[in-house]
Amino acid sequence: xxxxxxxxxxxxxxxxxxxxxxxxxxxxxxxxxxxxxxxxxxxxxxxxxxxxxxxxxxxxxxxxxxxxxxxxxxxxxxxxxxxxxxxxxxxxxxxxxxxxxxxxxxxxxxxxxxxxxxxxxxxxxxxxxxxxxxxxxxxxxxxxxxxxxxxxxxxxxxxxxxxxxxxxxxxxxxxxxxxxxxxxxxxxxxxxxxxxxxxxxxxxxxxxxxxxxxxxxxxxxxxxxxxxxxxxxxxxxxxxxxxxxxxxxxxxxxxxxxxxxxxxxxxxxxxxxxxxxxxxxxxxxxxxxxxxxxxxxxxxxxxxxxxxxxxxxxxxxxxxxxxxxxxxxxxxxxxxxxxxxxxxxxxxxxxxxxxxxxxxxxxxxxxxxxxxxxxxx
Length: 377
Known about the structure:
Largest sheet: none
Shape: globular
Oligomer: single chain
Number of domains: 1
Strand content: under 5%
Structural class: mainly alpha
Helix content: over 70%
Order of helices and strands: HHHHHHHHHHHHHHHHH
Radius of gyration: 20 Å
């Protein structure tokens, strides 16, 4: 049993590193279905479940301190790569599809919470999931922390995110050959031909990790200092999440976004955060997972129906609604892959829409989470 906070952090960092490297350096097919973040969470949760980590005051303190500083640092770095100029170069169909995807997911979450009569724990879990399905895993962590989701509930949300997302990706890839038929049904115009200047704020050149780490530490210290005084946005964690998000967006309008390497540093922080949360989760009963997964599929069904109806009304093509959907539910890891199956020249469209989800996901997840928890009262 580990009782030292130093060895506790070393173990979590080792777990995060091993699975991250395996995903990046190997060609194991399992990572197509179970992402590294899920394996990191599962491994650290297993170690906690078998009593590998002693729950003493030193470990508890280092957990709380690291989490409240890593979270804003990660959000800040993640948002530096947003470029609003490129986003507004998207065509009308893509912009409408993106808004439709976010709003239909919101309707799905609220409708399912009423149908399944969520209790407070289930509502908080799906609030965290809303952060992921309108943004990404980093948003899920941010929203889950801000909503004070229990580690057990977060574990359920992560399972739903993994299982439902995997099947949704396969379904959208399956639909690709039917794009011509779908476009005839919606009477959509081919809008992809004119989009050739879309990119993301992903810079090239030397990676200045040391500068990014220093900047992220300064941001973490600043937002925690502000949250420690009288200024509060709902709660302490919500305050640091919102402030870090706003600072990241502000930084994206400056030369800070040209510092290469922010994505890698932010990903490293995310993996460690996932390991941290997993180390505090001990799920005694997995019998409730089924109802969580079923509710997740109901959300996707409502989302799909609204997207098809919207495509018919606004004459949207299959590429636009599919990539918009996956840029929310899947994020940067999968949206570009789906875009490439239509046309390799459109990969940047998938990247850009997924990156925008980093900004939307935190605020959409917080809003939906608060609504779900209000319904649960």
